[in-house]
Amino acid sequence: MVATVAGIRVESLASSGLESIPKEYVRPQEELTSIGNVFEEEKKEEGPQVPTVDLKDLVAEDKEVRERCREALKKAATEWGVMHLVNHGIPDELMERVKAAGEGFFNQPVEEKEKYANDHDSGNIQGYGSKLANNASGQLEWEDYFFHLVFPEDKRDMSIWPKTLSDYIPATSEYAKQLRGLATKVLSALSLGLGLEEGRLEKEVGGMEELHLQMKINYYPKCPQPELALGVEAHTDVSALTFILHNMVPGLQLFYEGKWVTAKCVPNSIIMHIGDTVEILSNRKYKSILHRGLVNKEKVRISWAVFCEPPKEKIILQPLPETVTEEEPPLFPPRTFAQHIQHKLFRKTQVLGGK
Question: Is the peptide bond before 152 cis (omega within 30 degrees of 0)?
């Protein structure tokens, strides 16, 4: 069934001049009613908006000022599980270099990018790829991507980092290092928000040695029928935290209080999601929000997502004892990170397979 588009990159489909998208990319009927024009959606001022958290005071000398900043972060993590971070400490110039490097990769001809193609069949997901149908309906997403581990430095596979783009390795390496520092600051504040010791959450997700940062550059080509497709289908992130940059083209939507809310484009911000891992450890005091990506006819959208992931087998993820009471029993069974991923994939396949 998927043979008609198997092996074809979405970028190649998009540039072939087709006027209607292959059926594998058309979303199920019940989803189509909620897909609108993303540019119109982003302009809406009424209704809930993704919170913006200013991190400038997270390291202020004044204790009260620090606590106000931590409270704002805790509130956004509790109510939404996603936020725009501003004054996060990562230089604008470095973020622009990262974006230029990633755009440079995707601006190469498809045959050049194919030299970095990943091989799902052999279990190697690092590299250049497109979504493979992993459900019974053969559903595909309107995106190509480039995926690789960026931190810790000794775990990187440099053979798949683009060598022809002079700034790709320096810019991405420096950004990963600075994001790792930001993750520590955020995890410290979130730990204190749960009444835990400052370093507790970081320790529970693997610490400096074992928390892995995986970068996925998502490339969403222009789509001739954006009202029928999704760049990324609705999901929650399995990570502890996810940090996202984008090229200021709207597309991210969050499922909040029963409705899809489109995230605004906030200059120089980093979008941060609380992932399933922190949701589990906090016994859902912090939320991992359902989100998806829309596409459009006019502009290519690119986003740079960095997933901070705990080790696959070494840690048992379960609600921390301090987050559990008789009134609030544990909401999640103990699982390794690998088991949690399998549980999500299996459950999703079961649900979709039944339609």
Answer: yes
pLDDT bucket at 145, cuts 50 / 70 / 90: very high
Q: Which one of 74, 216, 273, 340 is the catalytic residue?
A: 216
Q: Which of 237, 246, 276, 287 is catalytic?
A: 237
Break the chain into its structural domains and give their ranges. 2-353
* Mean pLDDT (whole number) for 208-222: 97
**Is 237 marked active-site?**
yes
Kindly name the residue from 99, 285, 287, 291 that is annotated as catalytic: 291
235 included as an active-site residue: yes
- Which sign, positive or negative, has the C-alpha torsion 332, 338, 339, 342? positive
- Average pLDDT value over all residues in the chain: 93
**Cβ-based neighbours of 250, under 8 Å, separated by 6 or more:** 38, 39, 41, 42, 262, 263, 264, 265, 294, 301
Q: Which of 19-23, 129-133, 194-198, 255-259 has the lowest mean pLDDT?
A: 129-133
Residue 5 pLDDT > 60, yes or no?
Answer: no
| Architecture (CATH level 2) of domain 2-353 | Sandwich (2.60)
Is position 216 annotated as part of the catalytic site?
yes
